[in-house]
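Table S2 (continued). Query chain:
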Amino acid sequence: MNTPASPQKNIPGPAYVLGALVVSRMCFWALAHFKGVSFVDGLCRWDCGWYVQLASQGYDLLPHDNPRGDAANWAFFPLYPMAIAAFHALFDVPHRLASILISNAAMFLAIGISLRYLEQTREKVAGHFWVWFCVLGPYSFYFSSGYSEALFWLLASSALLAWHNKKFLRAGVFTACLCATRLFGLFWLMGYLLDLWRRRQQRPLTEQLRNPSLVLGLALCPLGIALFAGYLYWHLGDALAFSHVQIAWDRSLSGSLLNWQTTLQQWNDFGFLWAEIPQSRYAHAYFNVFLLVGLFLTGVLLTQKRWLESSIAICIFIIAFLAGAMSLPRFLVGSLVFALAFHDFVVQRVPAKMQTPLLGLLIFFNLWLLSNWYDVAFFLV
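Corresponding output:
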């Protein structure tokens, strides 16, 4: 299923991708100008401030933020802020601007590498649709802001491509970097192990594990999170501080389940998304829709028997669910595999003549989201 038989592909080149990226960012800038918001400050919302503070000052010694004073930057993994700090040191660029430039450069590379991955693993590829979906689709401003999502996409697509081509050592290095970017990187390792288990009938596991590059590649995968945990233990005496500090954002199992219990009872409160006060814009039904979307896209991967991608999607969906309703859209958008599933659905189920109107609707939705982002709307925290 994962090996193309009769290619029907139209893969845009780097110049097309760059042009689409520039056009999309000009749209983001124009909307910021229309809203009377500084482009850089408008993009650098919410977690961007944490990444900038981390890049400029390093990891906290004590909690210091939130009304309870229990928040700290230990929740944020180090690779992205390290890249911001390095860019600032090399080019003397302000940290906020550096974060945005890094994200856009990473997204440009991520689109190109993900196109190669699609080309090698799909019989049909909607290349132009994929490019515009990546640069202007829902929540695509995450990949232009001071968030780690663009870097994660770059490393995730690179790791998947390397694993598909049996470049196991390279896949291990990319996955180690994934694990130093976000916790979800560990699920790539779980996907690899499932993929090896699935292949055991063609080639026994004992024989597969005689490949030293495979064994070393697998061993490298968790290195990023291991080094981060080791640093936190040296710095704070708590190797799992990145997990323990989540309580500052009310992320606990009991809290999340109670949150979902309330959310799943509300399916008709969309009107609150248009509240006059941005901080009041929140709708339980909005997150219920994303719950259904996540389940559907996971099902798309499962029905195609894309076991590597679907196993990653299942793990991410479970963790996203347990993190609470407000985390779900960002985790789905930022994890690549759900976007791959959406691409497959469009290619297989949406007629070619309907793909452009669908893309137009998605772009309109994204610009509405971006307008709310500039307004600091609560449902986009």
